[in-house]
Amino acid sequence: MKAAIKRIASAVLMTTVLLASAGTAYADEEMEAREAERAASYEVVPDTNNIEGWPKGPQVYGNSAIVMDMNSGAVLYAKKPDERHYPASITKLMTALVALENASLEDEVYFSEDSVSFLEYGDASIGMTPGEILSMNDALYGMLLASANEVSYAIAESVGKLTGGGFDTFIQKMNDRAEEIGCTGSHWVNANGLHDEQHYTTAHDMALIASKVYQFEEFRTVVQTLNYTIGTTNLVGETRTFQQNHKMLWPQNANYYEYCTGGKTGYTDQARTTLVTMADDGNLPLAAVVLRDYGNDAYIDTRAMFDYAFANFVKVPLNDQEKAAGISSYEDENAYIVLPSGADFSSVRAKITVTDKTKAAGTVTYTYQGQNVGSAAVKLTEEYVKEETGYSLTPEITGTGTSDKGQNSKGGLPLAAKIVIGIAAGIILLFVILYVYLRYKLAKRRKMRMERARRRRQAQRGVRQYSASHSRMGGSRNQARGPRGEHTGDYRGRPYRGGISRTDNKS
């Protein structure tokens, strides 16, 4: 029996040793493969290094990387910026953007069973339970600082309901909004970044998203916070305290960067390390993105890209330069582009896009050696809008009338002026008609008065004639007698007509 036990124990020990050896070998192979991938990625030359006259940027370990000015959209550094990768938790920047645009900080975030039950062991979480309620303000801290996945889900579900739908409504808004701000290589299927084959983005798209969400003061406040405590909730009587995960914000950390103003970390086995960082040296507000990076290399890469950008580029205010033909003014008087130090503005090319012809609104994008160095919203000249779109901002009168859309040939009056003239003409015509009518009524009344006066005069002449005739005949004033002396009639002052006395014809 003892011998059998010894044999079993020996077999178990041998199996354990073999499995451990196999596991170690597998781990070693995986490490070697990752190191080979890391080294190969580092050797890839940044795209911007191939631009003639462009400052040479650092090589980085991240598979894709970019540095963008957050105000102008100028791309200062790029390495495979449009290559698709899994984003991991930097997805939460897109979630924050849609939430801030569709909800207020006082709105409630409700944790349903669905928002919690999907979590697996190891997923980032702050331990929310079904039925709990947080304010949107607290939820944003939980999502962006602690990277809590259940909080991301609850935010999406709650804001989706606020907009008349649910979780899927929010996800659709993420995709729609990304397209609206210019993202061309992103697709979102969840709000937290947990791995899905159909959930991906690009470095350039993430820089656009970071630039847009950074405009919200509420977002800047959250991502610059190092520690935050959520108070007791409707179901839990204890507080929850968590810390900022972005190492470049911690002064005591070796990766601390003095110009860092916020950011978001991410990691999954499939995505590797992803990192979005915002920084401002007091002159240029920049967003840096690295995708599929390798642990702490993400911070090293980000610092190298920021140092390069701050040292080699300058802000060029557009109002200090000659405007491109077709531009009337810039909507933002502080609009600028970013050029390599020493570059001349005369080498910059402008491309204008009409965004609203009825308002003469457009966007101008400037390039230097083919590289985007900034865009600005502009007011366009009427001549440019007419030339590019055929639309006339000043409708004109022609001999054959106006067009269907109120546009007229060159040299005519504005539509508003024609309307005013038409109204004035109508009022004048109304007064003329009223004047003619009143004149007619006055003339008619005058004619009637004259006719009455004429009749009175004629009647008076008749009375006088009657009186004179009656006196000659010796009759009284009111009576006339016939040959036999009988009364012929009582006229009682009525006018005597014809001057001939009336008599009875009795036989």
TrEMBL record:
<protein>
    <submittedName>
        <fullName>D-alanyl-D-alanine carboxypeptidase</fullName>
    </submittedName>
</protein>
<keyword id="KW-0472">Membrane</keyword>
<feature type="domain" description="Peptidase S11 D-alanyl-D-alanine carboxypeptidase A N-terminal">
    <location>
        <begin position="57"/>
        <end position="292"/>
    </location>
</feature>
<keyword id="KW-0645">Protease</keyword>
<feature type="signal peptide">
    <location>
        <begin position="1"/>
        <end position="27"/>
    </location>
</feature>
<feature type="compositionally biased region" description="Basic residues">
    <location>
        <begin position="447"/>
        <end position="459"/>
    </location>
</feature>
<feature type="transmembrane region" description="Helical">
    <location>
        <begin position="415"/>
        <end position="438"/>
    </location>
</feature>
<feature type="active site" description="Acyl-ester intermediate">
    <location>
        <position position="89"/>
    </location>
</feature>
<keyword id="KW-0573">Peptidoglycan synthesis</keyword>
<keyword id="KW-1133">Transmembrane helix</keyword>
<dbReference type="GO" id="GO:0009002">
    <property type="term" value="F:serine-type D-Ala-D-Ala carboxypeptidase activity"/>
</dbReference>
<dbReference type="InterPro" id="IPR001967">
    <property type="entry name" value="Peptidase_S11_N"/>
</dbReference>
<feature type="compositionally biased region" description="Basic and acidic residues">
    <location>
        <begin position="483"/>
        <end position="493"/>
    </location>
</feature>
<feature type="active site">
    <location>
        <position position="147"/>
    </location>
</feature>
<dbReference type="Pfam" id="PF00768">
    <property type="entry name" value="Peptidase_S11"/>
</dbReference>
<feature type="binding site">
    <location>
        <position position="264"/>
    </location>
    <ligand>
        <name>substrate</name>
    </ligand>
</feature>
<feature type="active site" description="Proton acceptor">
    <location>
        <position position="92"/>
    </location>
</feature>
<dbReference type="GO" id="GO:0006508">
    <property type="term" value="P:proteolysis"/>
</dbReference>
<dbReference type="GO" id="GO:0009252">
    <property type="term" value="P:peptidoglycan biosynthetic process"/>
</dbReference>
<dbReference type="GO" id="GO:0071555">
    <property type="term" value="P:cell wall organization"/>
</dbReference>
<keyword id="KW-0121">Carboxypeptidase</keyword>
<keyword id="KW-0961">Cell wall biogenesis/degradation</keyword>
<comment type="similarity">
    <text>Belongs to the peptidase S11 family.</text>
</comment>
<dbReference type="InterPro" id="IPR018044">
    <property type="entry name" value="Peptidase_S11"/>
</dbReference>
<keyword id="KW-0732">Signal</keyword>
<keyword id="KW-0812">Transmembrane</keyword>
<dbReference type="GO" id="GO:0008360">
    <property type="term" value="P:regulation of cell shape"/>
</dbReference>
<keyword id="KW-0133">Cell shape</keyword>
<feature type="region of interest" description="Disordered">
    <location>
        <begin position="447"/>
        <end position="507"/>
    </location>
</feature>
<dbReference type="InterPro" id="IPR012338">
    <property type="entry name" value="Beta-lactam/transpept-like"/>
</dbReference>
<keyword id="KW-0378">Hydrolase</keyword>
